[in-house]
Amino acid sequence: MAPDKTVKIFRLSQVTASIQATIQKRYSSHFWVTAEINRLNHYSHSGHCYPELVEKVNGKILAEIRSVLWKDDFVRINQQFITQLQTPLKDGIKVLMLVKVAFNPISGIQLQIKDIDPVFTLGDLEREKNESVAKLKSEKIFDLNKSRPLPLLPKRIAIISAQTSKGYSDFIKILDTNPHRFTFFHMLFPAYLQGDRSVDSIVSVLQKLEKVKDHFDVVAIIRGGGGDVGLSTFNNFELAKAIATFPLPVITGIGHATNDTVSEMVSYYNAITPTQSAGFLIKRFEEFSVPVEEAVKKIQREAELKLSRNKELIRQSVGALQSKTKTAVRRNSESLMSEQKQIAQATRFHIRSAYERLQSFQERTSAAFSQRISATAGNLSKISEVLKSKSLVTLNEQIIKLNTTENQLRALDPENVLQRGYSITKHNGSAVSSLKNVMSGDTIESILLDGTIKSKVTEKITDGRKH
């Protein structure tokens, strides 16, 4: 349906100009607004930012609008954040902004950001921290990790950190160069410790470590220095819960001297710096080694004292023993010499008697052996004659058997069989011994004395029946 000729028609630019004028008139001044920077959208080539602002309740977005932060304002505000909070403007933080509603004929309605209060952002982090603490306590897990048993000598350490972190390098340097030369085993499990991906990254590493928990004694979460906003990761409830419920003791050294984060509160031990975390582990060894060293020294002192006390007693005992021994030797020397003579005389008498008995026994034995040998020689001669006679008879019998067997084998020789008028039938090189070995149409060979006949089987007959 076409418009009536009397109806006034506007160009799009006129409409957008009217909207722009209306908004400028209605929103002529700046005002403060709270929102979350969902995405900062900073363009380095121009220096401008086009933040996406949202308001969320329980993760659900209630409102969303585009905004603009011009280069000069961005540089000024970003520097304020770095100076006061030690972190730049970034995605995912709540802010209090001084804004003005603006309308652009091309990009539409947007908020023009003039200023951002860093103190508000810091306060929001404190609220998140308090909420996480309250929730952990309500679930009765706030002090759970502190109750985990820490080994007397925690030697095996799983480290969660960034490989390029100075805090990590300081931590392992202190462990590996300790003056007592205590030996530690440590393994790095890399993770993001700040930024939007940090919570998921650390929780994921903790879940992997739980599967190999038997290989470690303690977990150390190590991070370099940073401001309070950069530490917002460690106030996150999910991360704090993962640390509180982890089956091994967790020590933290995330490098700041301000109020503790929730993750530090629930950990087994919290150190201000990575260096102090390493010192905590070394101190465990020192507390064990010092009493041991003192006990060793005490044992040495007691042993030296007892040796000193007993040295004179031992010397006196040795002198007395030597004196008594000499006296006993003198007293028994004459008695031993007398007994020695008696033993020598008795020995000579027994040897002489034994020699005479041995000669008599030798004479009797020689005569008996001579008689036995003569008798045995006669018997052997008779046995020899009998064996010769029986051997000749047996040999003749075996010769006769061999001749008979030889004649039988010769009679069975195929050539002799052929000479008697018989033939040998073969099929495929094998002798035919049954009708079952050939079929009609097979070619067979008949071997005669003077040659071979090849023939083809036309029929097979068994008991007068053809096959």
Automatic annotation (TrEMBL):
Its EC number(s): 3.1.11.6
Keywords: Cytoplasm, Exonuclease, Hydrolase, Nuclease
Organism per entry: Kaistella pullorum
NCBIfam families assigned: xseA
Domain OB-fold nucleic acid binding positions: 11-117
Chemical reaction(s) catalysed: Exonucleolytic cleavage in either 5'- to 3'- or 3'- to 5'-direction to yield nucleoside 5'-phosphates
UniProt domain Exonuclease VII large subunit C-terminal: residue ranges: 141-455
Root EC class: hydrolase
Pfam families reported for this sequence: Exonuc_VII_L, tRNA_anti_2
Domain of life of the source: Bacteria
Cellular location(s): Cytoplasm
Alphabetized GO MF terms: exodeoxyribonuclease VII activity
Broad class of the protein's primary localization: cytoplasm
Protein name per the record: Exodeoxyribonuclease 7 large subunit
Family the UniProt entry places it in: Belongs to the XseA family.
CDD domains in alphabetical order: ExoVII_LU_OBF
